[in-house]
Amino acid sequence: MPALSRCVRAGAQSVAVTAQYERPLEIAPSINWFVAGDVAYSGSQYLDITLDPRALQRDYTLFGARIGLESEEGWRVMLWARNLTDKSYFVYATPQPLNGLISGGGTAGASGFGGWYGAPRTFGIEGTFRF
Fold first, then answer.
1. Residue 59 contacts by C-beta under 8 Å, 6 or more apart in sequence?
2. Which CA distances in Å does 128 have to 23, 34, 76?
3. Ranges of each domain in the chain
4. Does the structure show a pLDDT above 60 at 101?
5. Largest Cα–Cα distance in the chain?
6. 3-state secondary structure of 122
7. Which long-range contacts (CB under 8 A, 24 or more apart) does 55-58 make?
8. Using CA atoms, how far apart are residues 125 and 73, in angstroms rounded to an integer?
9. pLDDT in tens, 116-131
10. How far apart are CA 9 and CA 48, in angstroms?
11. What does the pLDDT read at residue 111?
């Protein structure tokens, strides 16, 4: 695809798949246990409007998982994990406009892009109640 026809922060391909398996608890049939997983793929994308090749984020895939309990009364508790493989990727990049003022200790200024990483591997617990 020609560079000028690409949108910023929008890869040519993006796919997300989620699967969940649930069953009632044998000791409490009004409560279901569940396990779920998800996969999200993002195609290569430019992270700056200049479409500079230094701001190109290569394609990447993220994996997540959840396990928990859910009742018919409306409460839900789960453990979750995101970015299980701890993939490093950028979600935004910007050129360094003050290249001449930034130096790594030498006489030449820095050049390139600065960026913001996506979330690393994270874990959590979540509780909800529907009423």
1. 11, 13, 41, 42, 43, 44
2. 19, 15, 5
3. 3-89+119-129
4. no
5. 72
6. strand
7. 55/93, 55/94, 55/95, 55/113, 55/115, 57/89, 57/90, 57/91, 57/93
8. 20
9. 899 999 999 999 999 8
10. 7
11. 63
